[in-house]
Amino acid sequence: MPPPLARVAHHEAGHAVVAERLGASVLLATVVPTTIVPAPGLRAVRVARVEREDAPSREDDILIAYAGPLAEARHAGRPLPFALGRSRRHVSQAVLHYGGSLDLQAAARAAGLDKQFSDAGERRAYMRWLWERSRVLVRRRWREVEAVAAELLARRTLSGAQVRRCIARAGG
């Protein structure tokens, strides 16, 4: 059973708003399920930005990835505690373009996170810190997330320019 569309809209809006706030340029946000294999049913926020191979770029990718489930949970009125399993799935998607793998360990190696944090406990603490940073971004930008989600519900797909107009109208 697919998730209710309002939850999906808030999830994608969370990704879009945090991406824009971190300086990425959203090209498209949609709640329309894709039929593309290997992820049929996946909705998307497509982001364009200067590809950098430095830690801040990887960190931004992870913050953007975490923003979706955090916005969805906030909309549902339920807390979403940090969970390594959930973290692995979203981070692997965030750093997919670095390693071409949905496996977190492979993607983390390709992104250089294994070199940055060789100790598993330190790596987990870093990921938890990013989770909390993303939660704060979503909370501070909640009016913008709601505005983008409402527009996604009305139109189903938004261009980057439409996302930016929603953010501006919400006071961003």
UniProtKB/TrEMBL annotation:
UniProt-recorded name of the protein: Peptidase M41 domain-containing protein
InterPro entries: Peptidase_M41-like
Domain of life of the organism encoding this protein: Bacteria
Gene3D superfamilies named in the record: Peptidase M41 (1.20.58.760)
